[in-house]
Amino acid sequence: MLKLLIVEDEKITRESLETLIPWNELGIGEIKSAKNGQEALETVKNYIPDILLCDVRMPRMDGIEFSKRLKNIFPKCKIVFISGYAEKEYLLSAIRLNAIDYIEKPLDIEKIKSTMKKVVEIIEFERKEEEEKERLKEHYNESIYYAATQLVQQLLKDHTDYSVFQKYAAEDFLTSTLDVIVGFVDWKAEEDHLDEMVSKEIYDQVLGQDLTSRIAVLFSFLSQNSFVLICSEKSEIDINKAANILKEVFLQKGEICLMVATSIKASQVKESIGNMLKILKKNVFYNGFGNSYTYEGFVDKREQEISFDFEKFEEYLKWDDIKRAKEEIEKLYFWLKSNQGIEIEKVKNIFFEMLLIAYQVGRQRKITQLLDEAGRAKKWSEIEQKLTLNQLKEVIYETLDGIFELFTTRGNLNRKVYQIMRFIEENFYDKHLSVQKIANHFYFSPNYLCSMFKKATGKTLNDYITEVRIEKAKQLLKDNSIKLYEIAERVGFGDPNYFSALFKKKVGMTPSEFRERYYV
Question: Hey, what domains does the chain have and what are their CATH numbers?
Fold first, then answer.
């Protein structure tokens, strides 16, 4: 059922329109009314009309002005004007607003019914048309997704089957130079068919293809975390625009990192994509996600030697000196960040060896059992799945924190939590104060830090940071000479509006209201 909005300044006419017309029979199930354009604007803040039945001449805001504003908000709303004045200027305005009809007063109920019946039919026809377009688009997206996957697979083979490209009228990908984007994604959530959803979304909104166009771009996942987009130079798709669209599509689904190459010969696309993936994978590993790179060819750099003092690391663990063990990891971490030529597999092997040593020491201290073959395989799989050096370090930190939790927290938990709380109270003004920053200061993993703090205090670390900042803000509010935006800055908020909103959420009133109630 459709929604109707009646805007009429004459009360008798307005009420008659609401009660005398059999709206349900016409397919209109909900009706609201207003006595002028100003009041109607307030109504549409919480009400989306399908049809507007509106008087032209009204006080405060006439029907023409209101209809213009409504069209800006709800362009699909159908308009029918009513007026006692068949003046040329109003008729022209109605035409410009694509009004369905213009009914003159005195109103004829049959005329209104026939007009509304026509409006309802127009809306139903348009909705069916939109549904059909969506159905065709969905079918098209599914087909093109399947075709793109096949074509990308062919391009990455040593011997390409030309007939596959003929089948999809995609010969341009074999006869022209190509622009290529490869990327890696770190998904925010583990859901089935995320890759298919992303692919279809890209073909749906990104590249502006209509249902009659040739395939102008190929997008396909190469693995769960890697993908490629290929444009033919004969298409009108700008590769930089395509890169921006990829970022937009992935925005809510995960972090990505991209590498762009232009003017690649079709005969070299397999080799180029392989090299791009290799370079980008290493860049992601060492520098994390969120960056974009330009491919400038592959240079096989001489690899540096890497070393780590496993004996010293094991000795620290045996003496329960987790802090110094982590300092050794930090030294290695920063050396690797500065010398990014080491193969990822070698780095993962070193971190895996650390993990095995930790379990071995834990076994000696009767904290853990020695890992059997299945356990080792499971831990290696956990290491292997990590895409960045940061994630790898996090695995080791969490392992150390977990294994040695009894020794690092027994008898000392309250003292450590107290130290953390003091640190927050001394650094609340820092806009960049975060769980990660606190974890780095105390050499804990963020997950372990949050778990330990919540267990000891019953509140989250972020809640405590907010609590301290709000209490400091209350103290500053005593001084009327300090402006609110200055208070926001002094307690660690970069955005005064966010500070006010959060203060109201926690205290039940805005900072201004709090100051006025207690200190003015």
Answer: 2-107 (3.40.50.2300), 168-294 (3.30.70.270), 310-409 (no CATH), 413-518 (1.10.10.60)
